[in-house]
Design a protein that fits this description.
- This protein has 252 residues and is mainly beta.
- Helices cover 5% and strands 38% of the residues.
- It has helices at 61-64, 118-121, 236-239, and strands at residues 4-7, 15-23, 32-37, 53-57, 68-71, 82-85, 96-99, 111-115, 124-128, 134-139, 147-155, 164-169, 181-185, 191-194, 200-203, 214-218, 228-233, 242-246.
- It has a 5-stranded mixed beta sheet. Strands 2-3-4-6 form a 4-stranded antiparallel beta sheet, with no helix packed on it. Strands 11-12-13-15 form a 4-stranded antiparallel beta sheet, with no helix packed on it.
- β2 and β3 form a beta hairpin.
- The radius of gyration is 18 Å and the shape is globular.
- The termini are far apart.
- The chain binds calcium ion (CA) (4 copies).
- Residues 156, 158, 160, 162, 164, 186-187 line the site of one calcium ion (CA).
- The site of one calcium ion has 7 residues, from loops.
Length: 252
């Protein structure tokens, strides 16, 4: 029937709050698996650290043969091939996780990890390679933006061979309180920067819309070979909600 993945962490790790098929991130031709545990504690003796973590297992026979996969502070028990742990207490990384496409253009797929809670709830996004090495870190622009509440791969919409990443910030305030925002981080970014430096930025239309509660890259649906963006604004218009479909050719 498959296998179960369980946490041997200390308390309230919230493992499984985020899951995604990230594709083949280690380049062996077999797809891999990532899960988030956004209340993972860096130290097993401090249950209130809440650094958060993402665990990656490389696909293959060791994965398919197992009945149970454990994540643990005890290295001898920990089955994950890669751990990406939040740098700071309270970062709560792993609230969201997604494949990132090939963000840096080196030929291997990458991973994007989000936290809406880091940096006084401004939010945090980490893009890492399949070994867990950080490629780029982006922080929310303003306190309580909740950037990283959602992250998704978009594909390469500007044709430079590097995949773009989508970030939802449902409590950004550009067009009124909690109007929300979507950021497109163009592939090739490195180092640490504010999401304010992201080259493409879409805002919710009105206060309370919470645009960016979720956002997803879509395969090309208008036949021009370029991926599209779908974003939910579930609080729009008296909570009737609305969805925006944005064609990727917008970014050409
Ligand atoms: Ca693989
Ligand atoms: Ca890559
Ligand atoms: Ca690109
Ligand atoms: Ca298209």
């Amino acid at each position: 029937m498959g296998c179960q993945i369980l946490s041997e962490g200390v308390n309230r790790e919230q493992m499984g709050a985020a899951i995604d098929a990230v594709g083949d991130v280690n380049g062996d031709g077999i797809d891999d698996l990532a899960i988030g545990a956004y209340r993972w504690d860096q130290s097993s003796s401090n249950v209130d650290q809440n650094n958060g973590a993402v665990f990656v297992w490389y696909g293959g026979s060791s994965l398919s043969a197992a009945d149970e996969l454990l994540v643990s502070h005890n290295a001898g028990n920990n089955t994950a091939d890669v751990m990406i742990v939040g740098s700071n207490a309270g970062d709560q990384v792993g609230r969201t996780v997604s494949g990132a496409g090939d963000f840096d253009g080196d030929g291997n797929l990458d991973i994007v990890v989000g936290s809406e809670h880091a940096n006084s709830n401004a939010g945090l996004v980490i893009i890492a390679d399949g070994s867990g090495n950080t490629i780029a870190t982006l922080t929310g622009e303003n306190a309580d933006d909740a950037a990283g509440r959602w992250v998704s791969t978009l594909g390469d919409v500007n044709g430079d061979g590097m995949s773009e990443v989508l970030v939802g910030a449902k409590r950004a305030d550009a067009n009124g309180a909690d109007s929300g925002a979507i950021y497109v981080i163009l592939g090739g970014a490195t180092g640490t920067s504010s999401l304010g430096t992201a080259e493409v930025f879409l805002t919710g239309e009105g206060a309370g819309n919470e645009t960016g509660m979720n956002v997803s890259g879509l395969d090309d649906i208008d036949g021009d070979g370029i991926s599209e963006i779908l974003t939910g604004s579930y609080r729009t218009n008296g909570d009737r909600g609305a969805v925006q479909l944005i064609f990727g050719s917008t970014f050409q």
